[in-house]
């Protein structure tokens, strides 16, 4: 399984505009496998992504939207894309000008491979 995790993170990290990618344990919010560029701390990003995904998933279910597959956070300095993979999350940190459609597609593919 760790080979699949590493391959998924490696593939995501190669997408233009991606600053880093990781697989995160959804409940604990800790990185299982991470590949980040200098200046991006995987720990706080993993905790943020996990917390937001869990809370958004709970709210979406309560509102009748069903399960959340992907989530995107847009901030002043870039984007965080999160795709659910069961007990794992695929988390991608991207620059503001990244091709977000491609990043979301690759994150979704990685999540499907891990689920």
Description:
By secondary structure, this protein is α+β, with helices and mostly antiparallel strands. The chain has one domain (2-114): 2-Layer Sandwich (Beta-Lactamase), CATH 3.30.450.30. 42% of the residues lie in helices and 31% in strands. The chain contains 3 helices and 5 strands. The protein has helices spanning 2-13, 42-62, 100-114; strands spanning 18-25, 30-36, 70-75, 78-85, 88-94. A 5-stranded antiparallel beta sheet has the order 2-1-5-4-3, with helices on both faces. A hairpin with a 2-residue loop joins strand 3 and strand 4. Helix 1 (2-13) packs antiparallel against helix 3. The longest helix is centred in the middle third of the chain and has 21 residues, at 42-62. The protein is globular. The N and C termini lie close together (11 Å).
Whole-number average pLDDT?
93
Strand order of the largest sheet: 2-1-5-4-3
- Number of distinct helices: 3
Low-confidence stretches: none
The CATH superfamily appears as: Dynein light chain 2a, cytoplasmic
Structural category is alpha+beta
Named CATH architecture: 2-Layer Sandwich
Instruction: Give the termini distance in whole angstroms.
Output: 11 Å
Summarize the SSE layout with pairings.
Elements: H1 2-13, E1 18-25, E2 30-36, H2 42-62, E3 70-75, E4 78-85, E5 88-94, H3 100-114
Antiparallel strand pairs: 1-2, 1-5, 3-4, 4-5
């Amino acid at each position: 399984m760790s080979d699949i995790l590493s391959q998924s993170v490696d593939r995501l990290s190669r997408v233009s505009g991606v600053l880093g990618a990781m697989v995160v344990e959804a409940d604990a919010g800790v990185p299982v496998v991470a590949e980040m560029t200098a200046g991006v701390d995987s720990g706080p990003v993993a905790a943020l992504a996990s917390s937001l995904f869990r809370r958004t998933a709970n709210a979406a279910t309560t509102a009748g939207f069903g399960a959340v597959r992907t989530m995107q956070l847009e901030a002043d300095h870039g984007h965080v894309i999160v795709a659910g993979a069961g007990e794992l999350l695929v988390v991608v940190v991207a620059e503001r000008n990244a091709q977000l459609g491609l990043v979301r597609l690759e994150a979704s593919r990685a999540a499907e491979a891990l689920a």
